[in-house]
Amino acid sequence: MQISEKEFTILNEISNNHQPNQRLIAERSGISLGLTNLIIKCLVKKGYIKARQLTARKVQYLLTPKGFSEKLKKSYNYTLKTINSVKSIKEKIQELIISEYNKGKKEFIIQGKSELADITEIAFKSIDKPGIKCIRQNTVNGRNNKHNDSVTLIADRKSKSNIKNTISVISYLSESGLFF
Fold first, then answer.
1. How far apart are CA 161 and CA 166, in angstroms?
2. In sequence order, what are the residues at sequence separation of 6 or more whose Cβ sits closer than 8 angstroms to the Cβ of residue 29?
3. CB 3.0 to 4.6 Å from 178: which of 35, 59, 79, 173, for a disulfide?
4. Percent of the chain, pLDDT > 90?
5. Is residue 9 pLDDT above 90, yes or no?
């Protein structure tokens, strides 16, 4: 039986905070107080957490070994999914670079400060083609593509460019179904 994202969020809040109350859990998780109460009751019933009455108005929530195990499993699966997503994005960007290289493009200018710009730069590191060159710029108002053998890869959501030979990495990945 797998736990939902909201249940996982509540488990995280309980495990990361010493003696949290429901109001604090709800506030930090972005879930309403009423729903937080229902989720906690459900997690207690499933055996993922224990609720211990400290005073008439204070309850302590503790992760059980089963709850800790479920949190660890969910975190592990999320990490694997993220790694696989980054790998797929990197491979798709490499396909783009090789495709442009095969069209005669030798110089690639990566523009952006985002994680996607970082992944785009990493994608170049394992491409071994004669004469290929990669330049990284943090802003769009950088170097202009004066040569027909260069292409600018824009890797920021907000950035747009009228420079010729420009490709939006986000649009390219969106068309491939990898980025939304």
1. 7
2. 6, 9, 10, 12, 13, 36
3. 173
4. 55
5. yes
Q: Please give the Cα distance from 163 to 22 (Å, whole number).
A: 53
Chain centre to alpha carbon of residue 143: 29
Looking at the DSSP assignment, which residues form a beta bridge with residue 112?
A: none
What angle in degrees, to the nearest 10, is found between the helix axes of 115-125 and 65-102? 60
Angle between helices 33-46 and 22-29 (to 10 degrees): 110
Closest CA to 152 of 170, 135, 176, 127: 135
Integer Cα distance of 17 and 88 in angstroms: 35
Tens digit of each residue's pLDDT (9 = 90 or more) over 108-165: 999 888 899 999 999 998 899 999 999 888 765 544 545 556 788 888 765 555 567 7
Other residues' Cβ atoms within 10 Å of the Cβ of residue 22? 17
- Burial tier of 16 (Cβ tally within 10 Å: 0-12, 13-18, 19+): exposed
